[in-house]
Design a protein that fits this description.
20% strand, nucleotide-binding, Phenylalanine--tRNA ligase alpha subunit, binds phenylalanine, ATP-binding, alpha+beta, three-stranded antiparallel sheet, single chain, metal-binding, 338 residues, EC 6.1.1.20
């Protein structure tokens, strides 16, 4: 009874007092242990009444200990989370735009001045929009498993794949509208290549399309010439080399004078003074017809470039993998650019 009163009035102010309480009553040499040892030697009749009283006493001691333990603990953690409003605040880190977004924006801004709008389309494409409408013969090597990530092989209705270029958006645009068309198609594209400093299984493109009456190769050259002066600076030289794409005829690849060494020879241009930046050509009349456009009345040009390549040149980045690794030490370097 004396102990019961002591337990009931117990009110620790710190963990040490509580621990003293635990050792005194609940410890291996504590009061409760002693009482239960004595209890073994009482007569069976006494055991019945005394047992109940002792048990209640033991439960009271345990509950008292447990509830003070919990309240002391919650007090302690509460103190830690309490905010001292007088302390100076923590600075919030400012993010930065991804270099590929910066360059895409810059490309789009330049072409906007020439009246180009922006069009988008799905990254999962069917065979028609990615290949067939673009005049790819069925046996064309670009359809090979090596380049294309197929999602579904379907001989009857056409395969489903991740788009390998954003030319598919050009097809969708021409199918769904009437000329003139003047638009850019930026977006992510996929090719089944081993990942290295120079290749990745996905990258970003900006393609462009201009279809109207009397669009000529001269328009193509002047448009791209203007673009390069704006992006890489006045005086950048261009040259066109004949090339082949199934969807353009004639086709060309465009080189610019190396923006890094200014033509004197460096690693980027492999000492040649020139770097290739895009593919282009006059839209093949077959493609226009496939998209429901009169190929005898309308002509057009198209071009396509990899944003990674342009970004590499602009910022002298030598490893493509940096673009997708999200290393803040790399990304932070573009903080000052808007
Ligand atoms: N679609 C081509 C590619 O992905 C680029 C291109 C577009 C070439 C338009 C010519 C005309 O490589």
């Amino acid at each position: 009874n004396l102990y019961t009163a002591e337990i009931k009035s117990f009110s620790p102010t710190n963990a040490d007092e509580l621990e003293t309480f635990r050792i005194k009553f609940l410890g291996s040499k504590g009061i409760i242990k002693d009482i239960f040892d004595e209890f073994k030697s009482v007569s069976p009749e006494e055991k019945r009444t005394l047992g109940k009283v002792l048990n209640e006493f033991k439960v009271l001691a345990e509950q008292t200990y447990q509830s003070f333990k919990e309240s002391l603990e919650s007090q302690a953690s509460g103190a830690e989370t309490q905010i001292d409003a007088t302390l100076p605040g923590e600075g919030i880190e400012i993010g930065s735009r991804h270099p590929l977004s910066l360059v895409r924006k810059e490309i789009v801004e330049i072409f906007k001045k020439l009246g180009f709008s922006v069009a988008e389309g799905p990254e999962i494409e069917d065979d028609w929009h990615n290949f067939s409408a673009l005049n790819f013969p069925p046996e064309h090597p670009a359809r090979d498993m090596q380049d294309t990530f197929f999602i579904k092989k379907d001989a009857e209705n056409g395969d489903i794949a991740l788009r390998t270029h954003t030319s598919s958006v050009q097809v969708r645009m021409m199918e769904n509208g009437k000329p003139p068309f003047r638009a850019l198609m930026p977006g992510r594209v996929y090719r089944n290549e081993a990942i290295s400093a120079r290749a990745h299984c996905f990258f970003h493109q900006v393609e462009g399309l201009y279809v109207d009456e009397n669009v000529s190769f001269a328009d193509l050259k002047q448009t791209l010439f203007y673009f390069v002066q704006e992006l890489f600076g006045e005086g950048t030289k261009v040259r066109f080399r004949p090339s082949y794409f199934p969807f353009t005829e004639p086709s060309a690849e465009m080189d610019i004078s190396c923006s890094i060494c200014k033509g004197s020879g460096c690693q980027m241009c492999k000492q040649s003074g020139w770097v290739e930046i895009l593919g282009c050509g006059m839209v093949d009349p077959n493609v226009l017809e496939n998209c429901g456009i009169d190929g005898t009345k309308f002509t057009g040009f198209a071009f396509g470039m990899g944003i990674e390549r342009i970004t590499n040149l602009k910022y002298q980045i030598r490893d493509l993998r940096l673009f997708s690794e999200n290393d803040v030490r790399f990304l932070k370097q573009f903080q000052s650019e808007l």
